[in-house]
């Protein structure tokens, strides 16, 4: 834990002040203390934000740093899943190396906490988990990483996957993942009962990829909500993607949104351009926690992504037609405060006593920070400068 003084910063775009960090936590704002031993960073009028939160990505299978992969994958979800298994056998995708590359890139942009889904199936076994756990341990001083045991190829349809999921949870994975209970496993009750039983047994969280559209997705979502209520898991369940919430019929979607809010189920959006997506402002107004993630970063599913959650906030704003300054602050919240709430991060924010995980950006307003994504940026974790000008201050391999 570190001490630090940030001079002339503007917390959340407000008036200039000084921010004092003691023992890795925000001690307060105001006049600079007389302490010649205190490290000082000149804020130069920059906005200071709580550091960014990446609530949904796949650290184990990025192709960052590898030769360009010619993507010829088919359009269906199952095409992408099967193609990924094929490519994984033939490309040198080392989950430890690849997760390290992506995590460091995320830190350089201002992220200090990541939730990563990690593939578990009978081909890859726990190789991905082992690689990302190694990255988590190596980078513990500059970024926090939560893991999701994710049955990307299916759970019940691939015998042996469940035992691997259990082993991953024993090794320190925090969250049980799921995937399209109807469309992939074709057994929504069995799939969800299994996932929630695992989470209940290991006192873990649940995070389910729900790509299922329309009424099929609504049905699966209702089953997820039912189990969240029955097990008293409010605040511990997330639905990622949730494309069915983009349905145009309010008589179907509005009761579902109300049920999510009442049950304490969070929603994570990637602001996908190709599919209907949840209406972020509408969900937040109803009391649903809505966070955001990058999803895959340059992988076999697609060539896009740069691990910049400030840019992801811009995508959330664009996809949701958020134009007014106040609405752009909503987009920013999906990558900051809402992300922290969804992941249950303790002591997050800019209040005295909060962990000093901070991002400094040169912008006049929060809206400008989202719209323009200014660089260079300065990133602080627990009072220590961990990145400046796109360069991570870490002595390990890249």
Please explain how this structure is put together:
The chain has 398 residues and is α/β, with parallel strands linked by helices. The chain has 12 helices and 17 strands. Strands 1, 2, 3, 4, 5, 14, 15, 16 and 17 form a 9-stranded mixed sheet that branches. An 8-stranded parallel sheet has the order 6-7-8-9-10-11-12-13, sandwiched between helices. Helix 9 packs across helix 12 (366-372). The radius of gyration is 21 Å and the shape is globular.
The CATH superfamily of the largest domain appears as: Metal-dependent hydrolases
Task: Kindly provide the radius of gyration, computed on alpha-carbon positions and rounded to a whole number of angstroms.
Answer: 21 Å
Name of the CATH first level of the largest domain: Alpha Beta
The rough form would be described as globular
Instruction: Return residue spans where pLDDT drops below 50 for at least 5 consecutive residues.
Output: none
CATH domain topology of the largest domain: TIM Barrel
Question: What is the second-level CATH architecture of the largest domain?
Answer: Alpha-Beta Barrel
Secondary-structure content class: alpha/beta
Order of helices and strands: EEEEEEHHEHEHEHEHEHEHEHHHEHEEE
How much helical structure, as a percent, in the residues? Answer: 25-40%
* N→C terminal distance: 24 Å
Any chance you could write out the topology, listing elements then pairs?
Elements: E1 4-11, E2 17-22, E3 25-29, E4 40-42, E5 47-50, E6 52-57, H1 77-90, H2 95-109, E7 111-119, H3 127-138, E8 144-150, H4 161-170, E9 175-179, H5 188-202, E10 205-210, H6 214-230, E11 237-241, H7 250-263, E12 265-269, H8 280-285, E13 290-292, H9 309-319, H10 325-334, H11 337-343, E14 358-361, H12 366-372, E15 378-381, E16 384-388, E17 391-392
